[in-house]
Amino acid sequence: MQYARTLGDEEKTMHVEIIYAAEHHVFREQLELHTVSTVAQALERSALCQAHPEIDWNVNRIGIYGRLVPETTLLRDNDRIEIYRPLKARKSRKQ
What we know:
- By secondary structure, this protein is mostly beta strands.
- It contains 2 helices and 5 strands.
- The chain has helices spanning 39-45, 48-51; strands at residues 13-21, 26-34, 61-64, 67-68, 80-84.
- Strands 2-1-5-3-4 form a 5-stranded mixed β-sheet, covered by helices on one side.
C-alpha cells in the first residue's frame, strides 16, 4: 500500500502570474514558486527582464491586483504581479 508523501514547508509551492502591458503587446508568465516567496524573488525567476530590458525599475511601479506593493511583499497563491509603465502625458490642443 502506498501513501501520499507530505511535503515539508520548504517543498510546498504556489502559483503566481506576472503581467506587463508593453506598448505593443502583453507579457504574461505563470510561475511556480516556494510558498514563502517575495515579489523580488518572483521577478528574478521570471523571463520578464530578458524579454523587456527597457523596464526601468526606478520608474516602473509594481502592484498586486492594482495595489502598489514593495518588492519585499510576500506573495500568496494565485497572486497577479503587475508591472506598471509610467503614464505618458498628452499635449493638450489649443483651441
